[in-house]
Amino acid sequence: MLYLIGLGLGDAKDITVKGLEAVRRCSRVYLEAYTSVLTVGKEALVGAERSPASWIDAKDITVKGLEAVRRSSRVYLEAYTSVLTVGKEALEEFYGRKLILADREEVEQEADNILKDADISDVAFLVVGDPFGATTHSDLVLRATKLGIPYRVIHNASIMNAVGCCGLQLYKFGETVSIVFWTDTWRPESFFDKVKKNRQNGMHTLCLLDIKVKEQSLENLIKGRKIYEPPRYMSVNQAAQQLLEIIQNQRIRGEEPAITEETLCVGLARVGADDQKIAAGTLQQMCTVDLGEPLHSLIITGGSIHPMEMEMLNLIDGL
Known about the structure:
By secondary structure, this protein is an alpha/beta fold. Helix content is 28%, strand content 25%. The strands form three sheets. Strands 1, 2, 3, 4, 5, 6 and 7 form a seven-stranded parallel β-sheet that branches. Strands 8-9-14-12-13 form a five-stranded mixed β-sheet.
């Protein structure tokens, strides 16, 4: 059996009981390690004082997920589509299983290694947030199905539903967009069409901000050198600045932008953590708001704000 287990957003205990049971019975446990980042070691859970940035730890897994982990023969930790700020050792301590870090190359190019013997033993694949927060995890399920390997998904909280913490109503969100880091030669604006469509329909837009982990420079990529750039995480400030530039570009082209500098936005940081931070203000104000450490997300409101939504924003941010 292949288990895909969500770890949640807060700390190590956010794993469900079902997830924990699965982890503990698996023969292999993989930690997906290319959309998350492990930055804190074992001391985070065994007595040392945690750093302010350490907002996700082993207890975020559900109990169901923990059970699956503990009965698996292999446990993989996927840590590249989100940010996990406790060390692998801390997770191993809590789950009671050794973890195998699964980076982008392992998951996307060597998936057969993860699925090996999963038809005769339990294998766990751990994902920060919810297992289907990234399309590559759907690919793993499709591969397993084609090989006749049964699978089970143990869900958990993700930014897609936890974003409701800001007070905006979930059913009023339209299509989610991703904002990527611009380069000197690549400055995509196509996602802005979705923002426009959402605004026309009175829907809020959740913007997921870029994560660059284990990326190679063009020179190193061409020369085949496995040298990686330092990790980068887009902030709300950077996202807002790029949005303002898109607005200006549209005006230069004679187009009417769907949003302006005065559009109400909400910035979120470290959702699910004890030190999560939420700030509401204009898009222009989002360029300078201080939300601290990653991960950040940005919401562009749909224009029409329900009185209860505004009351919640007032409560949270003091608008």
